[in-house]
Design a protein that fits this description.
The chain is built from 4 helices and 13 strands.
Length: about 210
């Protein structure tokens, strides 16, 4: 499995020829986006920063789009969508948290969350997590859809993943999150290539991906 991070919460997860895209950024958004073909696309929130489906359609690859709560099986990937009310800007919306199972690994994409205080039903629905993609921002700077570094650290502790991958709005937000986690500076890598056997003995590790 190869994981690439673009910006905001836009990710590409690749297993051989299979490509899963998560929360693609629209070409008309203010944030820089990328363009590639995906087989499956996950959309947590209907806004330009999360719903750029045109960014993940290219040539013969036209993605199967999942954009809401439910249970899905697509191209051998088991996907659970969990609906959660959230505030994005000043507007209440329904955000979808996704848990995807790939090659025996469970990946959790939180989408636009506003609070680390998940109720028991949501925590039970998420269940065991191997990879947690944690949105981190500085809320008084308008980083909508991201948790403060302190809240992100609190939620990471509650979910107990083996690997935490911060999706950071700025270097400042990332630095504060790492401080909350008791970590020093972690050198960012361009892509993460990993297999299930690589995480079986991990306790908790933070891996920082450089924005591509």
């Amino acid at each position: 499995m190869v994981i690439t991070y673009y910006d905001a919460q836009f990710l590409k997860i690749q297993l051989g020829d299979l490509v899963l895209a998560v929360n693609p950024i629209a070409s008309s958004a203010k944030i820089k986006t990328a363009k590639f073909g995906a087989d499956v696309g996950l959309i947590s929130l209907h806004t330009l920063d999360f719903n750029g489906r045109e960014s993940i359609a290219f040539g013969e690859k036209q993605p199967f789009i999942i954009e809401g709560p439910g249970e899905y099986e697509v191209r051998g990937i088991g996907i659970k969508g969990i609906g959660l009310k959230t505030l994005y800007g000043d507007e209440e919306r329904i955000n979808t948290i996704y848990v995807a199972t790939l090659e025996g690994m469970r990946l959790c994409f939180l989408g636009a969350v506003e609070s680390p205080d998940f109720d028991r039903e949501t925590l039970e629905a998420i269940d065991v997590v191997d990879f947690l993609f944690m949105p981190v921002g500085i809320q008084n700077k308008g980083d909508y859809g991201a948790l403060s570094p302190k809240d992100a650290s609190e939620l990471s502790t509650a979910l107990e993943p083996k690997v935490i991958i911060p999706l950071y709005s700025s270097e400042e937000a990332l630095k504060q999150f790492l401080k909350e986690e008791g970590s020093g500076n972690i050198e960012a890598i361009d892509k993460l290539t990993i297999k299930k056997k690589d995480i079986e003995q991990k306790d908790v590790e933070i891996i920082v991906l450089r924005k591509t």
